[in-house]
Amino acid sequence: MIAIPPDKREQRHLLDALTAALGQMPDPFAARWAGQLEENLSAFFLDAHALAVSSGTAALHTALACAGIGPGDEVLLPALTVVMSAAPILIAGARPVFVDSNPHTLDIDYQDAARRLTERTRAIMPVHLWGRMGDPAVLRDFAERHGLIVIEDACQAIGSSRDDIAAGTIGDYGAFSTKDGKILWSGEGGFLLTRDERHAELARAYRTHWQTPPAGQAPLSRAAANYRLAEPLAAIAALNAIHLPYLLVRRKAQTRRLLDRLAGLPGLTVLEPHPSERWNHYAPLLRIDLLEARRLCERLAELHVPNSVGTFKLVSCDTRPAFAQPDRAPCPGAAQVIDTILAPILTDRDDEDSIDAHALVIEKQVTAWTQ
């Protein structure tokens, strides 16, 4: 049984950072900790530009705005996602066009994506749900052939990579969240990643009302947003970013411990990543080969085993009322994945006892479900 490494981070350092951040308030120009966070993330991602923002949603919206996506435009994205991926597209004034997924690989169904292209399609937004990545080469080839901007929703995928390409670095922009529950957490927050200096300049300007514009432009010459990350939250994120390699090791141990406890249990099949993928183990994934799989997930949630379907009512995003489009073909592959998936939710706080307790509940319920 895999042991979870003890938490060696010194909480005193976090408290000191919070005290320092609070001590400099109120200061409308404070950005010490946000700047430190960006330096730490830039180092982790091998000198990519990292820009701290107030949430993963803010990161996605900033990317769309800086890419010039707006009214009349369409953005392809998988129906195998959460509303937080699609909402920024609507906020930008564009239209989300949902694409099916391959139920065996969880990757975008690119044949379906090609069928949904129109003259208004401007971008594609892959979503690395549960930290899982699709094939970067196929994504890049599809985007290049059709002249599409690539904006990655990597909010759950920090630390994942495939073919040595890190999540969030495949395309033009990568968006991340640091909300509680993410591997790198700060309560709320997020960041945008890009390797293009011009993209970074635009994003820096956009997140703060265009007060610090790109070279050659006047301050406040464009309407933009307030997506700055508050300094106390930036302090938490900056300290956790220093320990990100440890946090990734810890999440891997947490996930592997739960999967090991459930290995061989009739009715559940572990969904392992692609051989070339270095998965961050964001959430254990198991295929449910039982009747009424969604009801099983709901029952587990009632018994305090949080999971994507039972707790957060995950469904294929194209069926949500806010995004339903009667003139579009459904996405059965995405629905098949969601309706047969058990994805327990883990956080940094889960220890061996809590994970073993979750495993015991799952084992008892699955065993009873098969009888």
TrEMBL record:
<keyword id="KW-0032">Aminotransferase</keyword>
<dbReference type="GO" id="GO:0008483">
    <property type="term" value="F:transaminase activity"/>
</dbReference>
<feature type="modified residue" description="N6-(pyridoxal phosphate)lysine">
    <location>
        <position position="182"/>
    </location>
</feature>
<feature type="active site" description="Proton acceptor">
    <location>
        <position position="182"/>
    </location>
</feature>
<comment type="similarity">
    <text>Belongs to the DegT/DnrJ/EryC1 family.</text>
</comment>
<dbReference type="InterPro" id="IPR015424">
    <property type="entry name" value="PyrdxlP-dep_Trfase"/>
</dbReference>
<keyword id="KW-0663">Pyridoxal phosphate</keyword>
<dbReference type="InterPro" id="IPR015422">
    <property type="entry name" value="PyrdxlP-dep_Trfase_small"/>
</dbReference>
<dbReference type="GO" id="GO:0000271">
    <property type="term" value="P:polysaccharide biosynthetic process"/>
</dbReference>
<dbReference type="InterPro" id="IPR000653">
    <property type="entry name" value="DegT/StrS_aminotransferase"/>
</dbReference>
<dbReference type="GO" id="GO:0030170">
    <property type="term" value="F:pyridoxal phosphate binding"/>
</dbReference>
<protein>
    <submittedName>
        <fullName>DegT/DnrJ/EryC1/StrS family aminotransferase</fullName>
    </submittedName>
</protein>
<dbReference type="Pfam" id="PF01041">
    <property type="entry name" value="DegT_DnrJ_EryC1"/>
</dbReference>
<dbReference type="InterPro" id="IPR015421">
    <property type="entry name" value="PyrdxlP-dep_Trfase_major"/>
</dbReference>
<keyword id="KW-0808">Transferase</keyword>
